[in-house]
Amino acid sequence: xxxxFELSRLLxxxxxxxxxxxxxxxxxxxREEGESNxxxxxxxxxxxxxxxxxxxxQPVVRELPWxxxxxxxxxxxxxxxxxxxxxxxxxxxxxxxxLHLMDPKAKINQLWDMEDVTAIPFKTIKGNPxxxxxxxxxxxxxxxxxxxxxxxxFFLDLLKKKVVAQSVVEDHVVNLELVEDDxxxxxxxxxxxxxxxxxxxxxxxxxxxxxxxxxxxxxELGYDQVDGRYLPVSNIISATVETKNMFxxxxxxxxxxSVILSTQNAKGLHFVTAHCDxxxxxxxxxxTIEHLPLFVYKLPLxxxxxxxxxKLLFSMLKLSGEKTLLVMSSQKSETSVDDxxxxxKDAIVQKFDLPPEEEVIAILKKSFPFYWHEKQEEKLxxxxxxxxxxxxxPGSSNQSMNIMGxxxxxxxVLDGCLIITNLAVYECRPRISxxxxxxxxxxxxxxxSYAEGLGISLSLDVNSLFELAAEYLLKCGNFKQAVxxxxxxxxxxxRRVASFARYGCIQEVMLYLRQLRGNQGPETSTSDRKHLAxxxxxxxxxxxxxxxxxxxxxxxxxxxLMTSFAYDEKLALQLLAEQGLVSLLLELAKARGLVMExxxxxxxxxxxxxxxxxxxxxxxxxxxxxLAQAAGGAFLRCLTTPDLVTVLCxxxxxxxxxxDMLKGRLVELSIDQLMKLMEIFDPSKPxxxxxxxxxxxxxxxxxxxxxxxxxxxxxxxxxxDKNVPDAAKIIxxxxxxxxxxxxxxxxxTGLYGKDLLLLEEPWEGQAHGLDREVDExxxxxxxxxxxxxxxxxxxAVIKNGNLYTxxxxxxxRLGNGNLIPENSISPICRVETLHMLQVQVISVACGGEHTxxxxxxxxxxxxxxxxxxxxxxxxHTYTRPMLLDALSAVQCVSVQxxxxxxxxxxxxxxxxxxxxxxxxxxxxxxxxxxxVPTRVTTLSDKQIISVAVGYCHSVALSSQGxxxxxxxxxxxxxxxxxxxxxxxxxxxxxxxxxxxxxATKSFHSVAVxxxxxxxxxxCNPYSLRYLVQMARRARAASETLVDPTKDFLNPQLxxxxxxxxxxxxxxxxxxxxxxxxxxxxxxxWGRNLDGQLGNGSRQDLRTPVIVTAINDRQVVHAAxxxxxxxxxxxxxxxxxxxxxDYSQILPDKSESTNTVMKHSRSPAIVQDxxxxxxxxxxxAINGLPSSSGQSPWKHSTSLSLSLSNSFEDxxxxxxxxxxxxxxxxxxxxxxxxxSRNILKVVFDHLPHLCxxxxxxxxxxxLKDWLSAACxxxxxxxxxxxxxxxxxxxxxxREQIQEIxxxxxxxxxxxxxxxxxxxxxxxxxxxxxxxxxVFQILRHWDGNSLSAxxxxxxxxxxxxxxxxxxxxxxxxxxxxxxxxxxxxALSSKFRQSFSSSFLLKITIKVLAATKEGFEKSSPFCxxxxxxxxxxPSHVDLQSSDRLMRSDQIWQDILQxxxxxxxxxxxxxxxxxxxxxxxxxxxxxSDHHGDRTDMDTQSNTVLFTCxxxxxxxxxxxxxxxxxxxxxxxxxxxxxxxxSVLTSYYNRKGLLPMSCPKCxxxxxxxIR
Length: 1565
Prior knowledge:
By secondary structure, the protein is of the alpha+beta class. Among the domains are: 670-782 and 1213-1275, no CATH class; 787-1073, Regulator of chromosome condensation 1/beta-lactamase-inhibitor protein II (Methylamine Dehydrogenase, Chain H, 7 Propeller), CATH 2.130.10; 1074-1207, no CATH class; 1321-1433, no CATH class; 1449-1564, no CATH class. It contains 48 helices and 65 strands. Strand 25 (303-308) and strand 26 form a beta hairpin. The longest helix has 23 residues, at 727-749. About 7% of the residues have low confidence.
């Protein structure tokens, strides 16, 4: 039994003191509509007791006195529960407004009197009224149906107050029940007689049987309304002659006499039930009772007064004198018509016993609102809280409150019943919701079968309830019971484990996860496994946080991360980053290809402090680029300089790519670290040379249409790698490092580079190795891109520099990461990793389970690397592209993929291979797998120009046209006449013609000669097995047949009779081959089981035949998968045919289709209801973006799809572009590795890459005068080189004190010779000599050296330098005074020269001035002409005009006293400045061009306050000044000439203002 209900007494008429006087209930009426219900009780004292209940309002009870002279016979309510229809014994009819009496505020349709009863007269009847019912017809009539003891049935129109119809049955009528169908189409009256006999009286109907002919036609057409009027409703009131027979009572002959029919409402439907008292069965029919029963229930013996509800049955028991109410489960009581089993006692949910003195009159169904249990539980919680506050033992109360705290989304509100006895009215109402009771039973009882029985009885959601109960027990800490309930709940593992984790049961979570990982737990869906794995991440993190010894949980966590693939990888990275588990984070990131994401997470959390070991590990495993790009390179920039160098030097290409990080830190590096960088950036070494050559070739190709690669460049634009510095930056960094290296050496070891300092090894002799002979041009292998790659089950195509892949996604071969499920078929998708890195893809190749591409940044590979075929050094699977660091210094022009191995060809015709090597197919002389690209040294001198890769063999083509093969020869694929393996390349001697094109795929190979002949050798195992079987059959039939295996061991000529045009390319599939001609036609031959020949059939072909379906297209590229082909025409359109098992041909139709594709020719597609298996004719492959701009193939129909003689295999590089390769080994030049001597060597070879000014500035900053001198010699700035060299001598004077003078003379002599021999103009040479001579003089003066040694040095050079020496040493004129202040030669030094030396200078000068002096030495001539002027031109003044010296000094002193406040600065106001700007603007507008004015000084300012524009000063002030002095009163023409020349000089003028000079002269006069 389950305490679901409680029995409550609503009304009681029992007088406790005198029971015999208690009024008895004799009649009743009950009706409920929604939440409103009315109960009317006719008592023996003549009162009608009314009880009204409406929703949550308090019920209202009233007594209505009734006249005793008119005793009530029967009564009922109208359908709206508003009016009470009362029929008395004398057949009087009264309508009582009961709702208005009970609730005066209620809104009522006032059909009758609201303040009093309405009496309706009734004719005399034969028998007394015995039953009444209210019928509201479909046409809106209000009818009272009154039955009598004589069997009469009257239909009284309550509005018109007259009888409108009547009928009769042959029995005393005791009950009338109105039956309506659920569609409101038919209504009939269920009449029950006193003998138990029952009739069906049709009241109204819209059925076809009573429609007129026109109405029938409309109804059959589906119309129920025409011209705004409903189809007519026929009823008993409006019956005609034709229909009156339909409205007659009909007895139920199909039921036995022991069966009692009654109407019931349940589940929102109308039913008619048939209770057989004899068999105790209870059948439920639809309202028509014309079909088999919908349900059959078995009742206990003696059950009566049965009520049907949604989930329960209520009944009384006759055996107990109808004193026991049973509540039974309809689910457990249900049986079948033919089942005669006994009543299931487990069906009894609850029972109640009534007082023995009371007799049950009726049981009525009672409904309760949907919020019933919420209200009840609120009240219960309030009561429990009051009990706890009042001090009652809180044990049971707390438990009840806790259970009430379990949130139930929806309560099931069960229907109850009213029990009307002769003395009282009882209500059987829900005490607790079934869900809440279920939770109580399952959480409080150890035996869950009791709760489970309740759930079955009431059809509850047992699984969800068990789960709620389990969660409650977890919250209470009862884990053992919770686990048992979770098992009963059958909830998903993810929900179960989530609850464990939510309540801290971490160990239990881990236990479940181990069971799942070991396949010991229940089966779970993929989605649940992912959620469980994500939850496990949090649990592992929690364990690590809680345990002091973290090593064990971290190791366990690591094992989980590395072996499980179900969890969200990005979530795992986020958790690891938040917890600071850096090593574990990066290990997972490297294993899953999410290094960039992990570094960004670390950066987001501010965790830049990664250990040096971690950073080196990342770089070593190929993630240096990610490390440099993440967070803008913050991880590297935060390192100390030595650590940064250590990290970057782990992968030399890293240092090259990120030299900017090091450039500003070179001063902090040690000599050893600088040496490491020198070796990396050395342009004579392979790494730096590779970058320089690659950029040189890229530059040359960008303007060339001589190869397919140039066409790609035209299509895709420039492809320079933005992550790699250009060549100039590489050389600049190398030279800066060189300077710092030698500067460090000098700082630590003193004098360094003595050979250069003392010119023991002249600058021009430093270019060691330059005398070797070189060709004027050097050949390099041309790049021939392949924009299509086909593997057995996937395709890759290049469009607009981006790579697109589709097909089978297993093992990451498509390069899309984890975006696509492992075993799915992917549509066309762009490889986003390459796109985001701005990598321009040039060529692509597909292997069995991997893909390789050639890009502007190098070679990328991805997919399965089980045999090392990806080339990263591991055997992992990579789902995203990985850059091959081993090829970073190699300029590749081609990349090819076999089944499990890969090959690349460099620009120097070097072949590299890696991957599966068990058959020797790598060509390294062994059978080992190779995990990184390794050069095939045997072919280094063969000038390999093309390579083709098969399943387990390889084929190479040399520039001489010879073919070399290696690998497995079991199927004859090596073409060497045997079945042996070759681990070293071996030439096919039987191919005597020059071969220009080769191809292979699986087990056979094809070659095309320069004479357009096609050769093939090797055979697929399946085809060869078939031929062997044919040979055996021939031998069995005594037929002669040549052994077919011998034909495939050597190259065989293919019949190309039907091939027209030059063959430009060939490709191979597993069983077939394909040719492309220069005209763009495609020819195929071989096996055709899957339509791979493209001829619309499955017939094999032994000779090449044109594919006619695309002969109007000009094909330029082709690729074969296993049994399918993909080609590209000159418009960039792709066409495919053959096997389509993974949607290689129809990527846009991966879903099933029932429509056969149409083509211009006969369609040939093999498909079933779910997939297209093969396409037998070329079909356009759609879904790719269109080419940006005009297709490069449009006007180049002869473009080759492989290396052939239709193109030059080599490109020519000029000597100038290849100077990098002519560099000698720079580390071996000079007295030590990377000495200063190499500076000029680099500048000589790579002048276009060297920034002279920046390097010279760096030399000056470091005071590396020797390197600066070297650079100036290279730039042919010899005077400046002399300055720097002399400074270097001065800086190292202490180390070379004994030979300092000798070194100074040697250096000076060396540079004077260079100046003398330089091919420059006379004026420039004189200027350079002037600077050199003065620097030599100043060097001697500054170092206080003996003038005698200097005289001896200059004597051999007097013819060249005598005029300059005379100026610097002898002259004492004003010019000399100016030079003295500017050049600062000490007078002591000038006076130290001997008279004989000065005399020799003078003689040389006088001799030089005789003829041609002005042309040979213009500077000296201009300076000396004043000194050697002819005496006839001297203007002598008379003695009387001369001023005495004392007068001159007096005037000078007087002038000084006049201006004691002479300023040493220029003061200018804002207004004066604005005035100057206005004058300049006017002058600018006048001249129309401000170029000269902007580049020169445009104002002249004096301390006296006079301010002029340059133009005004020259044209106005100076002109006036000259005229005044020359022709004015003073007449000082010589003074005017001298002063004017000084005023016209550029720069600072140490002169007085002209106006002030004139004023002073005027004052003197």
